[in-house]
Amino acid sequence: MKDSNFLKENNARRLWHPMTHPADSLANPPDIIVEAEGVEIIDIDGHRTVDAVGGLWNVNLGYSCQPVKDAITAQLGRLPYYSIFRGTTNDNVIELAEMLAEFFAPDGLSRAFYTSGGSDGVEVALRLARQYHKIRGEAGRVKFLSLKKGYHGTHTLGASVNGNANFRTQYEPLMPGCFHIPAPYTYRNPFNETDPARLAQFCLAAIEDEIKFQDASTIAAFIMEPVLGAGGVIPPHESFMPGVRALCSKYGILLIADEVITAFGRTGSKTGSRHWGVQPDLLVSAKAITNGYFPFGAVMISDAVAEVFEKDTTGKGAIGSGYTYSGHPVGAAAAVACVQEIERQQIHLNAGARGTQLFAGLQALMARHQIIGDVRGGHGLMCALELVADRASKAPVDKKIIGKVHRATYEAGAMVRVSGNNIILSPPLVVTEADVAKILSALEAGFSSL
Ligand code: PMP
To answer: Could you report the predicted ipTM of this complex, rounded to two decimals?
Structure first.
């Protein structure tokens, strides 16, 4: 490895970081992470912290998951790459498809289409939704509905259904035909409604209103995260996703669950859709499917949708999407080992228990620190603190202050993530009670530093 000075000097000069202003990397040089062990990361100066971000919501089994590492190494030796475009396949993708069909069976999903990540998966799911309607002779169904605050990756279709201006404005014009509904976000919403159940009903009414306004026969799909993640961890009321499902079914619209974060246990249930008792038509998974060790994703497809494609005799059912790395044998080997570990350890159960501990600790933190305007969580290991200048106006706190909390928390032993005026927590699902206590005490030190 190059020495520390070389790395620190050249990072900002030569490298642009995702979701970061290039000038910010110069002003606030990032920490250089060089090693990880268990649920901890170690930077180039030897500082060790609990990773309360879990990589990027993806390292659910932690950094020392030997079966996944071994599977990757063995596969690199045996078959490092071959494509699964028409005419060839490999043993891992078949074994994985069988495992995924079993894992997602309670969600009513039985076919897999592989991608190299979440943005790719969103793109595929939106395309499949349009194609499904075309095969069935409803070619006019081309529009998409989604939630404000939703995050669906950075490809142009995904950015078009994204509900956060930061990921859209600089890239407009995006795809026409995408419409956004207010999210069930109790802390801030256009209805000034703080009761989650009533808010869910208002948002559902807004969806139905938009469906009628657009004309249902022009809408292909509704895409949503079961718990809004990057938008600031916004869990809806339990009636919301079932309500969306009912509206989609009523108007012939496909429901796409974007489970890039929530699939494989993060909410305390094996999938986010199952958490709310909903069966989507399509489900996008990525991130935790390989524990973050290899870029990979799978779009899962319901029987009913799959049969429309499989029984098509007109040629319209031919899939016109695919990536060089769709079904990468190393990624698929990693995913096979990873899903086996997820099942063996039943990590969703620990996510539920430790999530309860984390959420309670964050609520206690809010009682002590006025700067915390809202605490969200309560559904597994995804939580957020929303920081405000004052609780009455709810004005977002100055960026510099969040930066200070972040730094002091890091120095006290936990890496947390800043997104807008939120601090987001999504630790590995294998954290112990002591790890969660350490995250909470580091945050306490972070807020006390102000
Ligand atoms: N959808 C959701 C819900 C996500 O959280 C993300 C990534 N955070 C994506 C899509 C995009 O996934 P990727 O970054 O792997 O392309």
So the answer is: 0.99
